Amino acid sequence: MKVAIEHVQLQFIKEIENNVCSLQVESNVMCFALKTGHMFLIDLETPSNVIKYRFTSLSSPQEKLLKVWMDPSATTLLLKTNFAKYYVLAVESLGKGNELVTPLKKLSKKNRDVITVTWQGKYEFVCGTAEGKVYIVNTQSENSATKAYSSPNSIDGLEFVNSPGAEQCAFLATGHTLRYWSNPKDPLTTLTELPPSETEQFEEIEQASSRKLAFFNDTFAWTIDSGTIFGTVKRSDNVLKSATVLLNVELPASHHRVKDVALSKYHLLLLRGSEILVINKLNNEVVTQKTTWNQGNEKILELVVDYSQSPPTFWCYSTSNIYEIVLEEESKGIWRLLNKFGKYDEALKLPDLAPAEKDFILEQKGDYLFSKKDFVEAARCYGMSDSATTAEVALKLMKCSDFIALQTFLTAKLSTARQKKGSIVQITLLSDWIVWNFMQMLNEVDESISSEQDDHTLETWRSKKEHIGKELMAFFKKNLEILDRDTVYQIMSRQNRKLEVLSFARLINDYKFVLSYWIRSKNWYEALKVLALTQDLECVYKYATILLINSPDSTVNTWMQIRDVNPCELISPLLTYFANFQKTHSSLDSSRPVPNYALKYLKWCIQELDAVKLTPIVYNTTIFMMIAGFDAKGRESEIIEFIEEHSGYFDSDFVLRLSIKFKRFKTCIYVYSWLRLYEEAVTLAIKMDLLDDAKLVASSSDLDGNSKVRRKLWLMIAQRIIKQQNDTKQAIKEILQDSNGILGIKDLLPLFEEFTTIANVKDELIKGLERHNSTMAHVSHEIENSIKIKKEIVEDIETLKARFQLVEPGASCDCCGRVLQTRKFYVFPCGHSFHTDCLVREILKSTDHALRSKIESIQRSATKGMTSVNLKELDRLLSTKCCLCSDIKINSIDEPLEFDESERQAWEI
């Protein structure tokens, strides 16, 4: 620790010599006063800015300032004069010309010599007098001074500690007695109603005006004739009895007595004459002894401390000078003493500890706890220290047979190793060792559970197992990124800890391991849950076969949830399942339908997925399962419907071969027909006695333009029907009716046998002749109607040739408004009339592009002189329709209106 006493340069104050009466430093603001009433205020953040104030309330030249007190927030000053008058001064008003000074009249009376003050806020303080009285004063009122305590001896020290985070306490030093209150209330209640928690009497001290009681950071110090008493209030009992007494004889010899005391975190500062003694509170040794620089007649008055700063700042002053006491590296070397006295936690909190020092303290603390058989806490300390080797400490803890302590040590050691670089091997070994220990602990608990018969004890073991499991998971989560996963798997697998392996795999998102575990365990439900969660396509394809065979319904539903699955990759597992399905269910009662989940999935893919993902193999496989299924014979209509709906996506030759192989003749007939092999379709239908299907093929709309083929197909069908039925008359009737007029009786006659009687065909021959007669009559009627229509057309043409339109004399053009007869014009049936050039102009401005382009073409040809103008064609175009009441004008409704500028100007006023 280094101590320096620095002189504060105040040469700019001429009248300071032997004139300083008081100094206060609070909240980094310094205020010192001269006896003459001059006061100086310095913000130590900006020491060059000094506020000077002349206290003008001194009544006579003989009245002098004696003492100044400042509240901890540096907002209020309490002033005392030698005439026992007291004033309150607002700090913020200094230097502004309107200083706020409040005299405390009730306090300014005889026998009220205030020698100690403790503030309770900005506007209230508690003060003690040399006459042994304690007053509570409110600075906002001139007449506020409530007496709270009375003693025959002077009040030499007074402290009320009620700041947040500090130990609540109060001290009162009077005469040779020190009183202490723990958990005090407000000052008035405490001093008037509550008895002290402790009272200690010491050797009577001499009267003095300087402060002799100090308090800081839960520690107190009080000077007496024989020495200095100091202690801490953190102990609940015997605060005063357990206090330490530093006798004056333990200090270096001096003719002066201790005049004042101040506290730092680990030291006492004693003012003795003109020297400053710094004493270590832990061993009462004098750390340093410094003497202030002063003149012969200069008198050192007091110590002053600003505890609002961190660390606190220390000052002392004389009648002519101010000094700053600078403490540097206060905590240096303190750790050894704290460690010696067993205050390990406090030693570890010291700043600037070297790593080796910290390790040593932790090891010492561990040894102490180990000796107290607190193995777990000892292991934690050992784990944070590098002083002892891992093997040495581990063996020490293993001899105690305490797995928990060993785990604690290894865990702490692992945390320490993680903070260092280049400790990968150590981290791996420690983490693997911890996992192995967890497995051993779980195995021991399992053995105890299996052998335990008492229900209560059994429940205890189960709770312990649950707790160990939670600790294991917490360890995994905290150290996930440093674990060697393969080694952890190996350790747990060799210990046969299946659930723990599974939990670890889930924690590291190793879902492939989890999935393989559930599949090995034949837990298809859990396996599919993992598959649905991960949606890993590689796993979908890898385990498709085993999952589909063992749990087809759930597997297919899971695949449906994974939208990125490519059904083409699943064709092989689907076919394997189908083969197994056929083998298993073909011998069962066909009346009970058994779902084919492979077919269900393929149909879903075709219906729901994008066609880009579906190749012909998907459609071919679907049709294969539909055709090859053991129950397909009665469901050929579904097959045909599917083929019809998805035609073009599959191999028709493949489907045809399948249909023939599995004797799905209706499907085969449909495919023949779809391939336009109508004769083969009808031939197969006739061969398999499927005449209804043959008739459907012959009646197909695809043959509407090919009556020759259709007639041939019906002849094949008719021949089969005539040969098959014994009732010739009924057969003829059926054929003629079903063929819908394609075949007539004359087409059927060559098909009959030579011995067929005329009676069998008589009725149909008569009906045929009647139909022929009706057809001829209808044709004759149509010819007559045509002749009549021709005559009417000729008459209309003649009428049109004779049609005319009257034009009144003086009629005007409907476009330009000028007389119509002045030049060539056109008159339309609607009554509108136009000059030829006006009509051409209107048509060229219209939106009838077809008519406009033809006229423009004629104009270009006439301009170039390429060909002679076809006047008849031009006349025909111009007379096509009226440009006012036809679509020429109607189509221009969305065109903007155009105004003649000259006409618009003519209407202006």
TrEMBL record:
CDD domains given in the database record: RING-H2_Pep3p-like
InterPro entries, per database record: Clathrin_H-chain/VPS_repeat, Pep3/Vps18_beta-prop, Pep3/Vps18_RING_C, WD40_repeat_dom_sf
Localization in the cell: Endomembrane system
Domain named Pep3/Vps18 RING C-terminal: residues: 807-891
Topology class, membrane: Peripheral membrane protein
Main location: membrane
An MF annotation (GO) of this entry: protein-macromolecule adaptor activity
Residue span, Pep3/Vps18 beta-propeller domain: 1-326
GO cellular component: bounding membrane of organelle; endosome; HOPS complex
Similarity field: Belongs to the VPS18 family.
PANTHER family linked to this entry: VACUOLAR PROTEIN SORTING-ASSOCIATED PROTEIN, VACUOLAR PROTEIN SORTING-ASSOCIATED PROTEIN 18 HOMOLOG
Protein name as it appears in the record: LAQU0S13e02564g1_1
Species name: Lachancea quebecensis
Phylogenetic placement of the source organism: Eukaryota, Fungi, Dikarya, Ascomycota, Saccharomycotina
